[in-house]
Amino acid sequence: MLDLKRVRADTPGYDSDTGLVFLDSAGSSLPPRVVVDTVVGHLRREAAIGGYRAASERLPDLAAVKTAIGELINAAPGSVALSDSATRSWADFFYSVPLAPGDRILISGSDYASNAIAALQRARAVGAVVERVPSDSSGQLDLDALEKMVDERVRLVSVLHAPTNGGLVNPAAEATAIAHSVGALVLLDACQSAGQIPVDVAELDVDALSVTGRKWLRGPRGTGFLYVRPELAATMEPQRLDLHSAEWVDGTDFRLAGDASRFEFWEHDVAARLGLGAAVRYLLELGPDEVYEAIAARAEHLRKALPQISGVTVRDLGIRHSGIVSFTVDGVDPLAVRDRLAEQDITVTVSHASSTLLDMTERGLASVVRASPHCFVGFDELDRFVAAVSAL
Ligand SMILES: *Cc1c(COP(=O)(O)O)cnc(C)c1O
Q: 101-151: per-residue pLDDT in tens?
């Protein structure tokens, strides 16, 4: 069992007793103290002695960022490329997958807008096609349909682990096995899964996955990472290179870095990167399974309580659920729900159709309210939120 008292004492967001109910870890979570202290401390050190010396003092800690991430997702540190967002990481991999005219890219119903836009742009540029894998009756990615769709022209399947607009968890490992049966690559968007449900790259067997720092990992903004399967990290040529991702050998040649760091540029926010490392280390110290269990229990509590309120509809799809609880209130616009709750210091967000266009259009939804409780939220606070929703 997670020690809720400790977790809350570790969270500066609870330092002053404001009565805050924070339900937006799917947007940008509250970081633990060690993350804030790490980032601020490093910025002060940079101001005191300059960024280069400050970074050189922290070389072991910087290397340990990838070790911690590797431990969390069961990957070798060399298969991790750090970046400034999940989208950057996703695109770094996606734009480097060789595509030819007639190639097929598969996306799914809950694919994220940025991924779909990139897929459409590249397909247009190279004469490839983007096709959508249907959802099954539960709303998750339809494995039978995927099986029927795949052939040797499919180069890449974009799988969304946990979508941004609801509590669905897609059968990523099963979809990956189907994609691999025809030699297609799988790029998993694990932005909403890492830090709240187990993400094990060996079990999932995906070729690459992208994650952001600020959501369930509770890291700083402007951080993210890409995992690339080691064989691919050693052979794929990224679209863009610099003096960190490659080495200038002579007047006519360069040599790519031997591992996933070929997907990184040299310059980065050192303080933020150290903060990401601190966030992942903190999660590992708490015990990821205990954190995941605590999140699931909170989401389940909301999924039971919200439908009891007349006029409230929970909009989550799928069979297996994540910590994101999406809902609508009859006659009240989701933005008004958010704003009226914010007046009581209850933080939820709104997920708009523009982020997950295929799914939301199919369901005739323009937007939904999204409540995403992390392990640090108390059940009494969940009940205060439910009461506030029923008073709308
Ligand atoms: C938030 C989100 C992203 C984008 O993450 P950034 O760090 O903002 O680039 C991608 N996919 C999903 C499913 C998301 O929820």
A: 999 999 999 999 999 999 999 999 999 999 999 999 999 999 999 999 999
Nearest to 376 by CA among 286, 305, 314, 302: 286
State whether CATH 3.20.20.10 applies to domain 38-285.
Answer: no
Tokens of 122: 């590249």
pTM of the model: 0.97
Q: Tell me the C-alpha distance between 229 and 75, whole Å.
A: 9
The residue among 216, 239, 230, 190 whose CA lies nearest residue 87 is 190
349 lines ligand 1 (CB under 6 A): no
Pocket test of ligand 1: the residue of 89, 110, 114 to mutate, having most ligand atoms within 8 Å of its CB, is 114
Cβ atoms of 369 and 327 closer than 8 Å:
yes
Q: 271 CA distance to ligand 1 centroid (A)?
A: 21
> What CATH code would you report for 4-31+287-391?
3.90.1150.10
Nearest to 375 by CA among 275, 289, 304, 306: 289
